[in-house]
Amino acid sequence: MKFRRRPLKLSSADSSWIALGLIVASLVLPTACATGTTDSKWTYSHSAARAFIASECPNPALPSPRRVRGPVRELDATGETFRRVERLRGLSPLERSRIASETREYRAAVGFGLLYPQIFLRLVVDGEEASGDLFAWWPVGIDKHGERGKLPSMPQMMAERDCREVSKDSDLATCRYCLPDDFDWRSVSAFLDEEGAWTLPDESVLPRPGTTVTVAEGVEAELVTFTTDGVSLEVELVSDGSIRFYSYGNPDVRTEPEAMTADSILRFIQELAK
Known about the structure:
This protein is α+β, with helices and mostly antiparallel strands. It has one domain. The radius of gyration is 20 Å and the shape is globular.
């Protein structure tokens, strides 16, 4: 099974959308007291924020599972973004990882629209124990927004959220949220269990959304919901020794129980990053 949605390709035409996304993000982020080193409401100037998010979190990240040799299935461009986040965080793909039969691992990416940051969750469940990591990612090209005005730059936004250990390549940046040592990962695991996240089918098994209408005498057509932007849930998991992929695009516009479950999982992951 392949991830199906196409990647975000930034162009000059996207700048107004990106600015809108940063405005929205600035409204929901907590206001911080300004210091003598910045002339904005943000705790850190752009340059200071870049240095801060490059620092290490107090607690270490989960180690990657051991990688085994072999080919990795070819994915579409959106799936490759998922893979790039994994590579930047030093994670081997689950299909090429050696994982104990009693261990479950759930990786979910939320985003692929025009609002940033976007979120990547990793949860590892071993019996009754659960642990995990939470990451953010964004295109490095939008870091310059906010350097010259009232909008924050992405490093400033990430510094306010205590997302550090930044890692990036030519056009994608990621960081890891510095969650407390006692973060309740068992509750995250319990929520996913209750929602049926481990067995949720792929969106492709659902009927195509739409309504058949008569557009002329003897002629019928299907009305299909169309969105110019939105959010996707992309998941890769291993459970009972089996690897599964599934994805949902804009599940909030669908009414099937499976799509409603996907939307609930998506919103839950977004809340974790606030």
